[in-house]
């Protein structure tokens, strides 16, 4: 198809026909916009013009806006505040490089929360902590406003000694609906209640981190899932009974593995098999599962809270508690 030559000056965004579609190619500041308009009808030049002009005008609006992009605001926030780096990286990936902070309204925040919520998160508090809180922190930091008040809903449940013994007894002889032939849940229970480590720290323990002769275990700090900052690195000492319950461990690699024997990388995506089996263990032990309204379920992290409470009651040494608990 041949077209008449038109000498009228055309805007930089004016589409051209190439590879069976109308395309555009222009620059705004230092950014190049070169792609197909998505219009593949050679007679639909008007539609392609509307698409290209819309992209062009939106790009200039962003370039001239007094507000930074979310990616730029997040970079400054991390450089100055340095909190929740892993969570902020996920947020930047979600919003991309072009979204401005003034474009993120309440609905956009809710969309982000839904999109980034992982299936294995058992409470809305996790989504609030890992998505909503860092997102609002960056926006509040950028706009210079104070953070929004949030009702604290942290876990407060701890196990009594009798409840812990009940849990150990069931883990020693698990019922048929719990798939744990090598009693790996028992090893996890004994380690967590004996060390005060977090579940993520537990799954990062390797055979080389263990000194059976002294009863010590090195807890890694700066590793995916192991902790938030290097100060979490520490040595913990397990009591004799914990070692008795733990028994044999793998001699290489990560030692606390899923009930199927696979290594668990605490990246927020894996480990769900152990968690499901642990919930069954709690149910078989007549411990709260969170199914009843207002009932706080027993989770792996409950054992860390329980350890801290028992340790404090026995020693009364706050500084030692902080050192041992990281």
Q: For the record, what CATH class of the largest domain applies? A: Mainly Alpha
Oligomer: single chain
Number of strand elements: 6
What string gives the helices and strands in order? Answer: EEEHHHHHHHHEEEHHHH
Strand order of the largest sheet: 1-2-3
3D architecture notes:
By secondary structure, the protein is mainly alpha-helical. It has three domains: 16-64, no CATH class; 70-143, no CATH class; 161-325, hpI Integrase, Chain A (Orthogonal Bundle). It is built from twelve helices and six strands. It has a three-stranded antiparallel β-sheet with strand order 1-2-3, with helices on one face. A three-stranded antiparallel β-sheet has the order 4-5-6. α7 packs antiparallel against α9 (240-246). The chain is elongated, with a radius of gyration of 28 Å.
Key attributes of the depicted protein:
single chain, 326 residues, mainly alpha, hpI Integrase, Chain A, 3 domains, three-stranded antiparallel β-sheet, 45% helix, elongated
Task: Summarize the entry for a quick read.
The protein has twelve helices and six strands.
Topology readout:
Layout: E1 16-18, E2 21-28, E3 31-36, H1 45-64, H2 70-80, H3 85-95, H4 106-116, H5 124-143, H6 161-172, H7 184-195, H8 199-203, E4 210-211, E5 216-219, E6 234-237, H9 240-246, H10 272-284, H11 300-315, H12 318-325
Antiparallel strand pairs: 1-2, 2-3, 4-5, 5-6
Helix pairs in contact: 2-3, 2-5, 4-5, 6-7, 7-9, 7-11, 11-12
